[in-house]
Amino acid sequence: MTRTTGFVFDTGMLIALERRKQRATHFFTIARRDRVPIWVPSPVFAEWWRGRSSVRESIRRSFEIDSLSEEVLRLAGEALANIKGKFDGCIVVDALVMASAALQGDTVFTGDADDLTRFHPFFPNVRVLGCGESPVRDQ
Amino acid sequence: MKRAGKTQTITISVDRSAEEFARAEADRLYNGNVSKFFAALLREAERLAAMDRVLAMSGHPPPTEAELDALRAEIAGKPIKRKKRAA
Question: pTM value?
Fold first, then answer.
């Protein structure tokens, strides 16, 4: 599917929806009412998906998977080069989320906005909104 | 490059004007591929139905229009308008 502008959900947002958190559900209501496309970058999908459940399958059907282009991968790598200090694998996914949103002019919905706003010096135009849910999940 | 997924062939009946519209949209958006046009319509219908299921499962009452407007303003990065309190 052609990548269009819309909302980008990260793992924390998907988990918040799964856990029926009110703020996440309200943002989701806006996407439904205003027919805003929802995109989930492919690494986020792998980070979130833990097997089929009724609610997870319905959430899955509500978004498109963004198979990231080389342009996004390069941009994310350049953003990571600007981050000082050591970092773990999770930050790579965060960089990909921000790079994908930056190229399309999307708004990002996340569990913990601080994880993503550290990229703001590199992606100043990406709007990041927290849904109040940490991305840490049960297995 | 993407691998083509498995597809099924179905026959549908539409009136003349709907057919003309479908062909024109397929020309405009999908290089004349009418199947792709209908597949996109079905995918959007599937997506909206899935969203309705997620919202129904949430157990939350629907947000009010004022709540939605406040969230839309937040998304747009506009200052949130708050109702004045009665004196």
Answer: 0.87
